[in-house]
Amino acid sequence: MDSLFLLVLGNTEVSTIPGISVAGATPELTKLTPVADAEYLFHEKPLTIDVIPVTPEGHPTPAIITKAAKELADFPILVVRGGTHLTPLVPHVHISNAVGQDFRKEPALPEFGEIIKRAKLFGEELNKSPIKELVIGESTPGGTTTAQAVLWAMGYDARTSSASPNNPQSLKEKVIGEGFKRAGIKRGELRDNPLEALRQFGDPMMAATIGLALGFRRSVVLAGGTQMLAVSALLKALGEDPGRLMIATTRWVVGDLSATFLETAKEMGVITYAADLDFSRSKFKGLQDYERGYVKEGVGAGGATWLAVKAGFSPAEVSQKVEELYERLMEMKG
Fold first, then answer.
1. pLDDT-above-90 percentage for the chain
2. DSSP-assigned states of every residue in 119-159
3. Alpha carbon distance 295, 179 (integer Å)
4. CA 6: distance to chain centroid?
5. 3-state class of 278 per DSSP?
6. Directed axis angle between helix 169-183 and helix 143-153, to 10°?
7. What is the pLDDT of residues 21-75, one digit of tens each?
8. pTM
9. Edge-to-edge, what's the strand order for the sheet holding 271-275?
10. Element (H, E) at 169
11. How far apart (Å, rounded) are the C-alpha atoms in residues 104 and 177?
């Protein structure tokens, strides 16, 4: 296969704000979610912690979709540590251990330049390989809030999605408003200064993904939901042709009426793919609830499904494989 799947891990202190993220059973546990996701892909269970990454209601990490697609299509996955609290216990490329700060109190990412530089170097090395397409997924709790802050700072009238059916939009807006006040800016004021938007409000996943996309000069698929809109906006503002990019997500993100995924992608000129996964007939409530607006995307689920479809598997086959993995998960829990 001429595609490589990269999973970029990132942490931001924004995820510990109560109510902002459900990518972990408690706000504090969101710090462990990225490494747990990466470890699950390789070991079928996290090694750093002894619980599967779940939402507070017990819904499984979207890494289960990525793993299902990987088991079917057997594409290579490489983990990239963009900036996390912990080191994942899997082979990985180390870019940084700098985590994003709470942008209400201080600039989010003072070290963004170093992260971009290192990730770009890695992207340039990948240029020398036969790989024709990079599919870049992410695991970044709290990342939809940092993404919305960056998009607003750059003048996009965008609303990002959420892993909860009750998108905490009012809380996001309050938090972003406090961040803008601290930075002394108004919406749209950093339209011509994308790197300042990243420094003030971004997260390490964004910086690492930007670097990778700048370094690797062939096709880049940004495998994620509304978080990858912020990455696309930053790349476009840095002079990249959005036609070289595609955002691969899931139909749950596209169908999220509390977000503006398709409208914002269209405004940027980025093409999109939505994986047509369906868990409506699943025998497990944890999976059925994806149809009710829980989880939606993450860990590159849409991009991994894109690779499986390119390899000749249907979204229905990916959905069935997810069912099998979830059954194994339940047996391990029991």
1. 88
2. HHHHHHHHHTSS--EEEEEEE-TTHHHHHHHHHHHTT----
3. 26
4. 11
5. coil
6. 50
7. 887 778 888 999 999 999 999 999 999 988 766 666 768 889 999 999 999 999 9
8. 0.97
9. 92-94, 77-83, 3-10, 133-139, 219-223, 245-250, 271-275
10. helix 169-183
11. 8
The letter for the amino acid at 246 is M
Q: What contacts 177, CB < 8 A, 6 or more positions away?
A: none
Q: And the tokens for 307?
A: 């690779």
The one-character DSSP state at 247 is: E
Count of beta carbons in the 10 Å neighbourhood of residue 155: 16
Helix (H) or strand (E) holding 5: strand 3-10
For the chain, which residues make up each domain, given as ranges? 3-333
Q: Which stretch of DSSP H or E encloses residue 295? A: none
Distance, in Å, from the CA atom of 87 to the CA atom of 314, rounded to the nearest integer, reads 34
Query: Encoding tokens for residue 284?
Result: 């497990």
Give domain 3-333's CATH architecture.
Answer: 3-Layer(aba) Sandwich (3.40)
Whole-angstrom distance, CA of residue 74 vs CA of residue 308? 8
**Hey, what amino acid is at 235?**
L
- Give the tokens for residue 99: 């985590």
How far is the first Cα of the chain from the last one, in angstroms, to the nearest whole number?
37
